[in-house]
Amino acid sequence: MNIITSRSFLWFNCHSIEYLLRFLLAINDWLHACVTVERFLVIFLGVRFNKAISKQYATRTVWIILLSTAASIVHDPMHRRLIDDTEEGRTWCILRLTPQLEIYDRFINIFHFLIPFSLNFILAIGIIFLTARQRSAVQHEVTFKQQLRKQLSQHKHLILSSILLVILAVPRLVISFLPNCMKSAKEYKLFLAGYFVSFIPPILHFFIFVLTSEIYKKEFEIMMKQKWRAFQRRLNPNYELSSRN
C-alpha cells in the first residue's frame, strides 16, 4: 500500500515472509503428525518400545522434515518479483510460475496439507482400536465392542482434534489456490479472516497435546515444578532449607 518505501525492505519481505510462513506452517503440521506416530508406536510396541532409540530417530526425523520441507518450497522465493504499479501507487510482490511449476506448487501444497492430517486421523483411530484390543485381551469379562466404546469415549479428543485441525487449515489451502490480487480495500476482510484462521492450530497445540494427555500433562507439571524450584534457588540460595523446614 506504499506505506513502506524502502526498496531493500520490500524486497526482503517479498522473498522471505511468505516462504517462512509456508515453511513454518508445514513444519508444524508434520511435527504434529510425528507426535501422533510416536503415540501409536508406544501402544503398538508396548514393552518393546525403546525410549532411547525413539529419541535418536526423533532427532533424525526432525532434521529430515526441516530440510525436505525447505527444499520442497524453495521455488517460491526464487520466482517472486517486485512490480511497481504507478497507476495505483503501490508495489506488488508477484509470484510468477511456469505452468509446470504451478502444478508442482499446488501438488506440494496438497501434499503438506493432506499427508500429515491423514496420518493424524488414521493413527488416532489405530490408537483407539489397538488399546481396545489389548484391554479386551487382558480383561476377558469385557468384550471388544465394550472396550472399543470405552476407548472412543476416552480418546475421542484425538479424532475430534484431527478433524478440527483439518477444518481450520482448509482456508489456508483454499487461499493458496486463489491467483487473484487484493486490489480493493473492501476485499481484505475475507482474505485476512481465512489466512489467520490457519494460525489457530499452532496456537492450540499445547491444549491439544499436553492438557488432553494424562502422561504429557503430568510431565509438564513435573517440569514446571523443577523450573520453579531452580528459579527460587537462584533468588534464594537457602530456598531448599527453608522449604523443608
From TrEMBL:
A Gene Ontology term for the protein's cellular component: membrane
Entry keywords, A to Z: Membrane, Transmembrane, Transmembrane helix
Subcellular localization: Membrane
One of the Pfam families matching this protein, by short name: 7tm_1
The keyword Signal is assigned to this record: no
G-protein coupled receptors family 1 profile domain span: 1-209
Native source organism of the sequence: Adineta steineri
GO MF annotation terms: G protein-coupled receptor activity
Protein name: G-protein coupled receptors family 1 profile domain-containing protein
Keyword Protein biosynthesis: no
Transmembrane segments: 57-75, 107-130, 158-178, 190-216
